[in-house]
Amino acid sequence: MNLVFATNNPHKLREIRHLLGGGFTLLSLDDIGCSVDIPETQSTLQGNASEKAFFVYDNYNINCFADDTGLEIDALSGAPGVLSARYAGEDKSFEKNMQKVLVELSGTTNRNARFRTVISLIINGKEELFEGIVNGTILNKKKGEEGFGYDPIFQPEGYDMSFAQMTLEKKNSISHRGIAFRKLVEFLSKIY
What we know:
With 192 residues, the chain is of the alpha/beta class. Helix content is 32%, strand content 24%. The protein contains 5 helices and 7 strands. Helix 1 crosses helix 5 (176-191) and helix 4 (168-174) packs across helix 5 (176-191).
């Protein structure tokens, strides 16, 4: 079965292809000829995931899913949250986003945070939602070279390393995205 993941982020595609396994051909937006910048105008992760998934389904008539992920930091009242990708500006710079968080948290002892992913799956026009959450803390400086986004400054609860210090397999086994996508894969395995 062909299934579109409404992203062109190669990091996300690699992570999800690794999780999805056989039985599905995972396509990117490029694969279906979608070159438009899909709107993300909602004020919640769920709203953005739904907006992206329905955009692809409505315009390309193909089953698809989309996700939205946010880093929610207690000391910043849940920011960057839904604005995580654009926290330091519209250029979506991982480096600038991390630096902004580190500057805003300098001198702060409460560094509790969580990553949250919401997935909207559209199959034959019907939506299913899946969520994954992982709690942790924001480090004082970057550690590690793997992953993307805020991975170098996020240390998941119960571990002494950042997401960026973990192998892809390890990160997928505990990450917010991994949790949400395992729920998606379990759902798909029941209907296909």
